[in-house]
Amino acid sequence: MRNYIKAILIILIISGTAYLPAQDTERPLPPVLDLVSVDPFTGHTTLQWTVSDSPDVAGYVIYLYLNEEGYAIDTVYEPFATSYINTGSNASYYPESYVIAAIDSSDNVSPLSNFLNTIYLDVQIDTCANKIELTWNPYLSSDPVVDKYEIYYSRNGSPYIIDGSNPGSDTTYSFESFESYSEYCFYVVAGLSNGLSSFSNNKCTDTDLPIPPQWINADFASYNKDGDVDLSFTIDPGTEYTGYRIERSNGTLSGFETIHKTYNTTGKIEYTDDNPGKGINYYRLAALNSCDEPVIYSNYASTINISISVDNNLIHLSWNDYYSWRGGVVSYTVFRHNRGIFEEIATVNGMDTTFTDNFNNFLYETDQKDVCYKVIAQEGFNSYFENAVSISGTACIEQALNIFVPNAFTPDDNTVNEIFKPVLSFSPVYYRLIIKNRAGVTLFKTSNYLEGWNGRHGSRKLPEDVYIWFLELKTPEGITITKTGTVTIFFNQDSPF
């Protein structure tokens, strides 16, 4: 009997098990993770996805994705949920990657979705280059792709504005136009090909750097009496920079070399280049940052060099234009060396760099063996420096030792050809001129080479005749020259003599 009852129970148990429903073990399809983006101001990370196509989805599991493995951080029990905000995100400190999975009512979990990562922005000040360098990790998405990155910034809490953009392949950016002693904050936005955008974290930095000069004015480059070049520079008084260097290039605006470094807090730098070399020299001043790198340059300052050519008695001068005053060149004044000093002989317009001198105009005035010239350039209006001038180098030509003695003159008081005087191309250190008649009587004598004979003996006017002259002189080189000859006095037909 007992065995009979046991058999019936076994049959009943087997029959009941056959009628139990089968357990659901099929995994749902994974969702598609569409976007991961950081709120720049809270640091929270938002995930957006397209729901799973499976019918029995109960919710979604949120994972951090590390080393190709998912670590669940939360579950959203809402089958139609399409977004999630991770308020515990550390995306403000480093990049994070996420995946999600669907979960059904039987707690079956789908395969992991595609992964997406946050954009982590880092900001560093490059004090050597005087700029802020931005770098970030790429937003890794194959579909949609990143079309571009836009860079936004704010200064001292002002509204954020866009500063520039990069192509989707470039994850570095240089921010150069910033003010010292300010706080700058940045974030980056990845623009995706489907119209969505992924934001980075917000990153701030203080620009407590010395204020660079906003301007440096090269006042002038000017030759001095020793043939050296005097330089002057004026610096923006608002700068906090103290390191500067003067650079020079010969003949071209490239290949500059440092000729002097200085520490300066006065806003004025003056220096004499005692080895300028031949030709045109160009100068500029560089302000140096803490890494000894130039941050800003002055305008250029050039020397003026004169070239001379001679055509008979015409002396042709030409010179290079002064380069490059902010106020331009308003005029050039030409000077000729005469009687131990340079005397002004002409002024030309600042657009003109040539002048022609006539030797006959100063033949009797010069007291030098060489004829020498200088040019002085005058700057126009410049708010940084007033009345700047640049003196050229001295250019000279050697005078030939020419002595010309006329053989006739007409002292008839008509102001034409009234005086007999030897014409010299130099100023003698010794001079004696004697005039005699044919009887040997001395009629005139002088030791002044600028004084001529007026055809008189004392106060008496002499008649037309041939007279004898004797000339003795010594050149600046110490050469003694003696000459003799005749000169004839003629009178015009209507003259009373």
Task: Describe how the helices and strands are arranged.
Layout: H1 2-18, E1 32-38, E2 45-50, E3 57-66, E4 69-76, E5 83-86, E6 97-104, E7 116-117, E8 121-126, E9 131-136, E10 146-155, E11 161-167, E12 172-175, E13 183-192, E14 197-199, E15 203-206, E16 216-223, E17 229-235, E18 243-250, E19 257-263, E20 268-273, E21 281-288, E22 294-297, E23 301-302, E24 306-311, E25 314-319, E26 329-338, E27 341-349, E28 354-358, E29 370-379, E30 389-391, E31 395-398, E32 403-404, E33 408-409, E34 423-424, E35 430-436, E36 442-446, E37 456-457, E38 460-461, E39 465-474, E40 480-489
Parallel strand pairs: 33-40
Antiparallel strand pairs: 1-2, 2-5, 3-4, 3-6, 6-7, 8-9, 9-12, 10-11, 10-13, 13-14, 13-15, 16-17, 17-20, 18-19, 18-21, 21-22, 21-23, 24-25, 25-28, 26-27, 26-29, 29-30, 29-31, 32-34, 35-36, 35-39, 37-38, 39-40
Give structural attributes:
mainly beta; 3% helix; Immunoglobulin-like; 5 domains; 497 residues; 1 helix; 48% strand; five-stranded antiparallel sheet; 40 strands; single chain
Structure description:
With 497 residues, the protein is mainly β. It folds into 5 domains: 32-117, Immunoglobulins (Immunoglobulin-like, Sandwich), CATH 2.60.40; 121-206, Immunoglobulin-like; 216-302, Immunoglobulin-like, CATH 2.60.40.10; 306-398, Sandwich (Immunoglobulin-like), CATH 2.60.40; 403-489, Sandwich (Immunoglobulin-like). It is 3% helix and 48% strand. The strands form 11 sheets. Strands 10, 11, 13, 14 and 15 form a 5-stranded antiparallel sheet that branches. Strands 18, 19, 21, 22 and 23 form a 5-stranded antiparallel sheet that branches. The protein is rod-shaped and about 165 Å long. Mean pLDDT is 91; it is low at 8-20.
